[in-house]
Structure formats: structure tokens, C-alpha cells
Specification:
single chain, 417 residues, alpha/beta, six-stranded parallel β-sheet
Length: 417
């Protein structure tokens, strides 16, 4: 292979926003694809108004939430409601191999750049539409974010403690599930196009992609009529199993003894081998029946030690255990550091920030690579429209004058988080 990166030469026009769409194209961007992100000063990408902001100063270009999802990309700013904006969008579509969008069904069709519009001009285009519940069906027009999808996908019902109210997993969990499916669908479409020269339409339901991860619960209801409920940190196949308080300020460690060998080693490691022989804890069934008391015994021991001490003692005994990491622990993790997980890059507004890869895998011949920080809004208007699309300076100037290339916000910056 002559290319340095596996997707060198692949061109993506990204009309997607927030998390799912931008996270999908990141897989391609960090492996060589040229990704142009279409944005507007008239309605900011939601991620640009999400915290954390560098120095707690909310501006369209200071959100590290946006930064996390968009390195290695170019940004252009277009007002799609103006005729000139639609003209610019079509220039990008004619340039691209792939078009992505993640708006509510009907939005891109209203602009005149839905798949049926595009394929008439570009029958070889690969076009990805990712929406909340897919196109077709009584709920196809519903809009929302990953937090909403967590609810109707079933995650919220299963999260939390059995004696408490349901609670959502942290963040827009389903957004981070769906991009894995859509990225690999794009790769499959690229392979098919290379073999046949034909494009295709990829239509993703984020609802269906997410519920895939709850299939054991759904199948249990299907075949047995059982409705899985909230279990907190419990699991029927391990004891002890949970997070336990340690010495220090709000510090915890996760421990899981999945079989009898690990249970015996756990008892020996905490200096109480006789515990394993007590009838209340001698078998998994007995331990599950006496789990509240068992957790008290475990906590009496963990409270005597720091998280690091507990982790070290149990890992040396080959018992699964790990500190409950804070964000600062992850940021300083020596394993991630050794694999160069966080990449420091200079951003003109945010200064030097570390960007993490979307690809949690490394291809041996064409490894992932982050070389550009996330773009500032409209930062690459001149480069994209002149160098990539081939417009003249006068043509670009006309679009700036008529407002179809946006350059300034006409409303206050409002942070949503």
C-alpha cells in the first residue's frame, strides 16, 4: 500500500452535527480522509455551546466538548436558508465521495439535498442518514438527543438501585453506541463501491442500534417472560461483586470474584482464608443469599487501605479489582500514556489541548493519527472553497457579501450545559 493512511483520498461532506454524525466521520478523518464539516453562525452545532469551555469562557471556539468530536476536520460556515448556501452545499456534494447527515428526517430533504435529490446528480454517492428512530414508521419524525434515546431504548429502566427510581446512564450514552455501527457501515459501502463503482444509501435508526446492547434483557422477556429490573452493582454470577469504600475522601474500588478460585484467593489476600470455609459463604449460592453481610465484611477490609493498596493486593492475588477512576485518574493513566492516547495539539483559541482518538484500535500498517485540532467555526472557508472546490476569490467574496457564507453570529452565545 502506497498511501500513508488507509482512507487517504476519501472526501467527506459532513452535514451532521452534535455527536453521532461527527463521531462517525472521525474514524475516517483519523485514518486520512478529508472531512469538511458544514456549519453556520446562524445556528451553532450544539456541541459548540456545550461545556467544558477553556477557562470557563463560553465562545463558539472554546468548547472542548466540540473539540473532542471534531479534530482532523475542516469547517465551513454556510447559511442553508439562502440560495447561495444551497449552491455551496452542492459544490461540496459534487466534490465528495461520502455525504453524512444526522438531522431529524425531513430537514435535508427540505433543503433539497436529501438522498433522492443527491443520487440524481451523483448516483455513485455514499450517503449516510442517522436519525433518532429511522425513516419510516409512526415515530420517524421524532427529534431528540441521546439522553432521550436512553429512555425509550430501555437503558434508564435498568440503571440504578432496585429500591430507588430509575436513572440514566451518564451522558448521551446511545450517541456513543451508534457511531460504531454507522462508521463500519460506511467502510462496507466504500468496499462495495471500490468493487462495483456503485454508491448506496445507509439509513440508520439510533433506536435500533442502541437496543442491540440490551438484547439479553429483551430475549429473556421473549423466551421466559422475565422483565429484568435494576440491580445496582449486583450480578447473579459473582460475589463479592460491587464497589467498596476505601481509605480517603470518597475513594472506591471495584471488586469482582467470578468463580470459586477467585473467591478462595480473595479470602487469602485479605488475610482471612477461614472465611471461604464458612457455610454462609462456601458456595456462590450461599454468598448471594448472604450478600449484604458479605459486602460488610469486604468493606471492613477495604476501609483499612487506600484504593491503590486494595488494587495492588488483589491484582497480585489474581482477583479482578480496580480503583473507581475519576476523570483525573484516567487523564494520568500510565497505560493510556504509554499508548499515546491523548495527543497534544495547539488550538488558536484553546491553546495546547489534548485530543483523544475515536478509533480505539490501531491498524498495524496505517495507524490512527490526529494532526489537526478541532476547527474554529468557518476557519477553512477560503481553503475549502478555493483549494478543494475550485472557486475563485471573486466567487467566494460574492457569497460572503450575500451572507450565504456566514462570518458573524447575530445572536448572543447561549451555553446549554
Amino acid at each position: 500500500m502506497d498511501n500513508k493512511n488507509i482512507f487517504d483520498g476519501i472526501k467527506v461532506a459532513e452535514f451532521a452535527w452534535v455527536v453521532v454524525g461527527p463521531s462517525t466521520s472521525r474514524y475516517l478523518a483519523e485514518h486520512g480522509a478529508t472531512v469538511v464539516k458544514v456549519e453556520s453562525h446562524k445556528r451553532l452545532d450544539t456541541n459548540r455551546v456545550n461545556s467544558p469551555f477553556v477557562n470557563n469562557d463560553p465562545t463558539p471556539d472554546s468548547s472542548m466538548f466540540y473539540g473532542r468530536h471534531n479534530p482532523n476536520k475542516y469547517s465551513v460556515s454556510i447559511d442553508m436558508k439562502k440560495p447561495g448556501g444551497l449552491e455551496l452545499a452542492w459544490k461540496l456534494i459534487e466534490w465528495a465521495d461520502i455525504v453524512t447527515e444526522s438531522f431529524s428526517p425531513g430537514t435535508v430533504e427540505k433543503w433539497g439535498i436529501g438522498y433522492e435529490d443527491v443520487r440524481k446528480v451523483r448516483p455513485d454517492i455514499i450517503y449516510l442518514s442517522s436519525s433518532m428512530q429511522g425513516r419510516g414508521g409512526p415515530h420517524s419524525s421524532y427529534a431528540g438527543y441521546g439522553q432521550n434515546a436512553c429512555n425509550f431504548s430501555g437503558f434508564t429502566e435498568l440503571s440504578g438501585w432496585p429500591d430507588r427510581k430509575a436513572s440514566q446512564p451518564y451522558g448521551a450514552y446511545t450517541d456513543y453506541v451508534c457511531c460504531r455501527f454507522s462508521a463500519f457501515a460506511l467502510i462496507g459501502a466504500l468496499i462495495q463501491k471500490k468493487l462495483t463503482g456503485k454508491g448506496q444509501y445507509i439509513e440508520q435508526s439510533q433506536f435500533e442500534s442502541s437496543i442491540h446492547f440490551l438484547m439479553p434483557a429483551v430475549m429473556d422477556y421473549q423466551v421466559n417472560g422475565n422483565i429484568m429490573g435494576r440491580m445496582g452493582n449486583r450480578t447473579p454470577i459473582a460475589a463479592p461483586h460491587g464497589v467498596y469504600e476505601c481509605k480517603g475522601d470518597d475513594r472506591w474500588v471495584a471488586i469482582s470474584a467470578m468463580n470459586e478460585d477467585e473467591w478462595l484467593r480473595f479470602c487469602k489476600a485479605i488475610g482471612n482464608p477461614a472465611l471461604a470455609k464458612q457455610k454462609e459463604y462456601a458456595t456462590l449460592g450461599a454468598r448471594k443469599q448472604n450478600e449484604v453481610k458479605l459486602d460488610e465484611i469486604v468493606t471492613d477490609w477495604t476501609r483499612l487501605h487506600t484504593t491503590e493498596e486494595v488494587e495492588t493486593i488483589l491484582q497480585h492475588a489474581f482477583v479482578p479489582a480496580h480503583i473507581v477512576s475519576r476523570p483525573s485518574d484516567v487523564y494520568r493513566d500510565e497505560q493510556l500514556e504509554a499508548r499515546k492516547y491523548f495527543t497534544p495539539l495547539h488550538h488558536e483559541v484553546m491553546g495546547v489541548q489534548k485530543f483523544e482518538p475515536q478509533s480505539c484500535f490501531i491498524l498495524s500498517k496505517t495507524p490512527r493519527e490526529i494532526t489537526l485540532p478541532s476547527p474554529m467555526l468557518g476557519q477553512h472557508n477560503e481553503y475549502v472553497f478555493k483549494e478543494l472546490v475550485g472557486m475563485t476569490d471573486d466567487e467566494i467574496a460574492e457569497h460572503i457579501i450575500d451572507g450565504s457564507i456566514t462570518t458573524q453570529m447575530d445572536s448572543p452565545m447561549v451555553s446549554t450545559f
